[in-house]
Write a structure and sequence with these properties.
This protein is α+β, with helices and mostly antiparallel strands. The chain has a single domain, classed as Barwin-like endoglucanases (Beta Barrel), CATH 2.40.40. Helix content is 22%, strand content 31%. It contains four helices and seven strands; from the N terminus they run βααβαβββαββ. Strands 1-5-2-4-3-6 form a six-stranded mixed barrel. The chain is globular and about 35 Å long. The relative contact order is 0.28. The C terminus is likely disordered.
């Protein structure tokens, strides 16, 4: 399978927000922050099913996450703020205090294994974020 290029949007989600209240080490938070939302068309194009593990790569780093079908436009994707997201976003803030995280170009490829990603599976490209 070849890679699929998408636009990644990152942000808060309800489950990520409530999960952070229980703690970042708890499954509720990890499950909310280690998943990428995709359109059904993009999942079909990539040959993915709900829960498939994919590798997401940007110019700043990469992470492995599960995929989930969502009602979003084809070519778009979403990951909630968390450790996987932090590996994909650069550190430059342009003096705003917030990195640019609303339109990242990503390359997504299926990962051929059946185990689920853990919070520690995100690989850093040296941007110093965790």
């Amino acid at each position: 399978m070849s890679s699929l290029c998408l636009t990644l949007i990152t942000g808060r989600s309800t489950k990520q927000g409530t999960g952070i209240s229980t703690g970042k080490e708890h499954p509720e938070y990890r499950n909310a922050t280690n998943v990428i939302d995709l359109s059904q068309a993009d999942m079909d194009r990539a040959g993915l099913s709900e829960g498939s593990i994919v590798s997401i790569k940007t110019e700043f780093g990469m992470a492995e996450v599960k995929c989930r079908r969502a009602d979003i436009p084809e070519g778009m994707s979403f990951i909630a703020f968390g450790s996987a997201c932090n590996q994909l976003v650069g550190g430059e803030t342009c003096a705003s205090g917030m990195p640019d995280s609303k339109h990242l170009r990503v390359e997504m490829m299926p990962v051929n294994r059946s185990s689920s990603p853990s919070a520690g599976s995100a690989a850093s490209a040296g941007n110093g974020k965790a």
